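Chain A, query sequence.
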Amino acid sequence: MLYLASQSPRRQALLRQLGRRFRTVRTAHRERIDPRRTPSWNAMRNAHGKASKARLPRGASGLVIGADTFLYFQGRVLGKPSSMRQARAFLRALSGRSHWVYTGVCVREARTGACRCTYDKTRVSFKPLTEAAITRLFRRVPPLDKAGGYAIQEDRGELIAGIRGAHSTVVGLPMERLQTVLARWPKAGRKTNHHGISP
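Chain A, predicted structure.
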């Protein structure tokens, strides 16, 4: 059994592509960013925290998937905006420029705590955005539950100029990386994953 430690409908839609049964569960982990660490470390650390603190049914067995997505732009992390004002500020800053989207993913065995974490990043370029375009976008797609204040899958040609990397990473679950981890699970390290993120 797979457990997805996320309520994101976008991640659920991606995970369904695997054709495996899964359940969504909540997690007690609160996302944190350590500015002294790299974006990849922070993405994996938060993914690990979500998988480790997933609220599983009593006696659950199987694998828990945690994921964390944020933007990295001009040396700082942009997560989910805390207000519409901040969401607008994010898109103003990103207008006509490029940024990186990082998604960390962690797979953890429910009974033993064995885990393996990895990450992916995709470069996203925005078209120039007017204030009117941002207003129209927000009327159509609420921004507050989305990293950076936007959802690439909701773009109708007014937002994205191009991407370099995996589309699923921007949506919130790097499918190629996840499938690799699941396929190699029996060989995964028991206590520390290959990127050095300790349980």
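Confidence is low (pLDDT under 50) at residues 187-199. Residues 39-52 form the longest helix (14 residues).
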